[in-house]
Structure formats: structure tokens, C-alpha cells
Design goal:
186 residues; 5 helices
Length: 186
């Protein structure tokens, strides 16, 4: 379909278009491991996946998902995404963030505007020339409107000579649908 009906379709479309075989990727909010699984399958056995989350439950869930595939080319960190780049030496070819809270978990443990912006500032310096950063921004949790506002301000003010930013909205959906941002290096 030319028009997607949910954000995961947008992510799937992006992953179909990018060649990640043998490259490096980061799931900056690994959650239940769904995006990590999609990424490691695209990376293949010669690529490498980094993933992080602040919750032990998320790390364990992601580890279980990845272990079930037989892949061993990944490293999980129980830390905030604002600190993950201190642990990664390579340039990354794909980075994804799903902002908000861990599904089916404590809705008071959420991503925060300040740490997200700190992380994105690091991410834009760590992404490879042909790489892409994807941010899925949800509303509804505590601090989500502030996080979205700061995210919009940060991305809107990236120098267009160095970065291209695309904002994908589900414009006529009710109940605060997510927005997907794609950031590429020029």
C-alpha cells in the first residue's frame, strides 16, 4: 500500500530500502526487542547490533528475542540512550528510537526530553554518511508533550546543509498517533 496505516509499516518500509548487511546498528530504546529482531535480521551474521534500555525487563525481553534467532552478534546495555555512544567505537549505519514507555509495563518509567536530545546530538555525530536515524515519538505518557516539542525544535534546527529531516504523521488519526522522524546525513 502506498499509504501506511501504522508506524511499524513505516519502519518496515525504511528497513526494506536500506542495505544493512554486515553493517552496524543501534536500537536506542530496545523495549520488547521487536525492532532489535528486525535489525539483526537485516544486519546478518557479519553485522553488529547494539541495543540499550534503562529497564532490566526490556533488556531481558530483547535478549530472549535475539537468543531465539541464534544470532550472537549483538551487545545489550542497561543504560539510558544518552550514555550509549560512549560504548560504541564504530560509525553506525542505522539508529532507531521509540520514545515513551515499555509496553505492558510501568507507564511512569519513560523517556525524557533532555536525555533524548542529548542522545540525538551524539547520534548525529555517530551516524555514517549514508546512514539513517529513525525516531518514533508517542504522546500520552508523562512528559511526552514536552519531549515532542523539544524533539521538534531540535530537528527543525539541524543545519539543512548537513542533515535532511523527514516528518511522517498519521494526520487524520485520533488519540495522538505517533510521529516518525527520519534523519539522514547529506
Amino acid at each position: 500500500m502506498l499509504v501506511n496505516s501504522k508506524f511499524s509499516d513505516v519502519i518496515d518500509d525504511i528497513l526494506k530500502e536500506i542495505d544493512l548487511d554486515g553493517k552496524f546498528a543501534l536500537d536506542a530504546t530496545c523495549g520488547r526487542g521487536n525492532d532489535s529482531l528486525k535489525l539483526i535480521q537485516k544486519l546478518g551474521g557479519n553485522g553488529f547490533l547494539y541495543a540499550c534500555d534503562i529497564q532490566e525487563e526490556a533488556i531481558n525481553s530483547t535478549k530472549n528475542v535475539l537468543n531465539s534467532t541464534g544470532y550472537k552478534n549483538y551487545r545489550l546495555y542497561k543504560i539510558s540512550h544518552e550514555y550509549i555512544f560512549d560504548r560504541i567505537e564504530e560509525k553506525l549505519d542505522f539508529i532507531i528510537y521509540n520514545l515513551g514507555y515499555l509496553p505492558k509495563s510501568d507507564k511512569l518509567i519513560v523517556t525524557k526530553a533532555d536525555s533524548t536530545i542529548i542522545s540525538l546530538k551524539e547520534a548525529i555525530n555517530k551516524i555514517s554518511k549514508m546512514g539513517i536515524i529513525v525516531v518514533v515519538s508517542y504522546l500520552g505518557h508523562q512528559g511526552s508533550f514536552e519531549e515532542r516539542e523539544k524533539l521538534n525544535d531540535f530537528l527543525k534546527n539541524l543545519d539543512q546543509k548537513n542533515y535532511k529531516v523527514e516528518k511522517i504523521e498519521f494526520f487524520n488519526q485520533i488519540n495522538n498517533p505517533p510521529i516518525v522522524y527520519k534523519i539522514g546525513v547529506v
